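[scheduler] slot 2 assigned
[scheduler] job type: sequence-to-structure, two independent chains
[scheduler] chain ordering preserved from manifest
[runner] begin chain α
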Amino acid sequence: MLRSYCILSTILIAFLLSGCAGYVAAKPNQEVPTHTPRLISNTSPANCPVTVPQNPPFMPPPPYDKLGFEGEFWYGSNSLWTEVRQNGIWEALPHNPEGYTQKVFWWRNGYVWTDEPEPALTMTAERLDAKVPIVSASKATNAHASDIGSAMLVGIDLPSLGCWKITGKYRDAELSFVVWVAP
């Protein structure tokens, strides 16, 4: 009986001590190190009208209708389309002295990447929740891979976080969408 009591006591003490494993004792006049995780919201603020899927949803022509990326939806028309994040948020973007960098793919029915290595696509960004100058993107380039087909690619550096309207223009087509740029 005593032996059973000792074993039970040992197990109980081990269990209680295991709950203290993450505790850090501070020495006098020493701060206890803390870690505050960076929270990234998966929603945008109410004052940022992020783009939602069209109703009915846009479906690009073949072969693009079989392509796509998880967590994104097709947006636009056969004249010009792109993919937009389901939650409307561009988060954890690379940051450099010019701002937060994002690359955007654009498609157009009939665009052939080998025929137009530097497509005449322009892209701008306008901040909707603050007054800042309109930002112009880099020159467009062509892109091709089995998971994206024949596409146009543009990189942009957004100088700040916030609510941004992105506009692409290619030949006779123009398309805009809104995203929330989060840390």
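[runner] end chain α
[runner] begin chain β
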Amino acid sequence: MPPSVDIIEESPLWAAFSGLRAVIVNAVAAVAAYPAMAMAMRGDEEVTVALMDDRSIAELNRRWRKISAPTNVLSFPAAPNARYDGLRPLGDIALSFETIEREARAGGKTINDHVAHLVAHAMLHLLGYDHITDRDAAHMEALEVAILATMGVADPYETEAA
């Protein structure tokens, strides 16, 4: 069973994108269903996704990472063994509209595909993956590409030849 997803729309900028909630829920479910992740899932998980704007995410970035700038996505893993209303929270994901829109446009991607990628990326962080070393980054990127392929989303790291 995929994690329960609580989506909080903190910025009205996101309202223009139809199907966005389904994209988020499907990306969370795709990560949970991927064989390497499914073993870690118990069926009682929950994740919260906050749909923010650049101003709000910049404040979170400043407060938690000491970086005074907006970013596309932030993830905040829950405390180990945390429980809430019978669910095990995996953590919180924050997405920033303006940054994601700008990146999608620059990369020739749809907002929905870019959001799917960023949610999958953040979910992997919530499950303990990181990209601090080159080896870890290559492993995490390979997982993202494979998970996104199950959703019909193209490799976000593929670049077109000039």
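[runner] end chain β
[qc] chain β: The beta strands are 4-9, 45-52, 73-77, 88-96.
[scheduler] slot 2 released
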